[in-house]
Amino acid sequence: MSPRLSLAYLAFILLCLLAASSAPTPLYPLYQQAWGFSPAMLTLIFGIYALSLLLALLTVGKLSDHLGRRPVIAVALVLEGLAMGLFLQAQNVAWLIAARVLQGFATGMATSALGAAMVDRDKTQGPLLNSVAPLLGMAAGALGCSVLVVYGPWPLRLVYALMAVLFVVQLALLPWLSESVSRAPGALASLVPALQVPQQARAALWQVLPVDIACWALGGFFLSLAPSLVSAATGLASHLLPGALVATLTVAGALAIYRLRQHNPAWVLRFGTLMLAFGVVLLLLAVHTGQAALFFVATLIAGVGFGSSFSGAVRSVIPLAHAHERAALMSAFYVLSYLAFCVPALLAGLLVKRFGLVVTSDGYATLLLVLCMLSALAMWRASDSARSNA
Question: Topology relative to the membrane, per the entry (predicted)?
Answer without folding.
Answer: Multi-pass membrane protein
